[in-house]
Amino acid sequence: TVASFQGDGRVEAVVTDKGTRVAGDFVVVGVGIQPNVEWLDGAGVELDNGVVVDEFCRTNVEGIYAAGDVANHWHPIFERRMRVEHWDNALKQGAAAARNMMGIETVFDDPHWFWSDQYRHNLQYMGFAAEWDELVLRGSLEERKFVAFYLAEGVVKAVAGLDRGKDVRRSAGLIRAKRPFDPALLRDEDVDLKNLASQAVEGV
Predict the structure, then answer these.
(1) Three-state SS string across the chain, please?
(2) Can you tell me the distance from the alpha carbon of 100 to that of 44, in angstroms, rounded to the nearest whole number?
(3) Tens digit of pLDDT per residue, the chain (204 long)?
(4) Which of 25, 128, 199, 202 is the one with CA 20 to 30 A from 98?
């Protein structure tokens, strides 16, 4: 844990709470990792790594919903709980929560999409793959322009791309399908990823 910064006019070192001094020219601060839920103590709302909600953004207390960074939601595609700290998730999940509050039953099953621009390169990731048994590449590692599909028994769990953002976004249907796909089709540059979801195969 960081205790303090040291430097004359600019940061020169970081000091931890154990007294360790780490020299450095700059500091990157990430804020918001711990959800602020203390104010809900005693309200009866289930708390566990945030506010626990179902796929409709509902808590265990009738009439109370949660969305965004604080919501530990059940994801019907990945069949697990997850809490996502990203504004794109907050935007989409907030809209789903609002529809459910109005009585328009809406399942929140967005596969989650992240991106970062690093100088002239664009990195993107969609889905969730804690484990996989096959990694399928489309594009070229040498040219640093590719898409990687993370498969588990042929099912696309996640997609990562370097300077192939359109292909990552077109892969949302593959993740939603929750069915196996032929790796050869995923590799084939002539196959339209957006249309491939309707061509799921049994086994690979």
Answers:
(1) CEEEEECCCCCCEEEECCCCEEECCCCCCCCCCCCCCHHHCCCCCCECCCEEECCCCECCCCCCECCCCCEEEEECCCCEEECCCCHHHHHHHHHHHHHHHCCCCCCCCCCCEEEEEECCEEEEEEECCCCCCEEEEEEECCCCEEEEEEEECCEEEEEEEECCHHHHHHCHHHHHHCCECCHHHHHCCCCCHHHHHHHCCCCC
(2) 20
(3) 889 999 998 999 999 999 999 999 888 887 767 888 999 988 999 999 999 999 999 999 999 999 999 999 999 999 999 999 999 999 999 999 999 999 999 999 999 999 999 999 999 999 999 999 999 999 999 999 999 999 999 999 999 999 999 999 999 999 999 999 999 999 999 999 988 877 654 444
(4) 128
Residue tagged 């506010």 (tokens): 51
CATH number of 38-102: 3.50.50.60
Residues of the chain with CATH 3.30.390.30: 113-198
Enter the CATH code of domain 113-198.
3.30.390.30
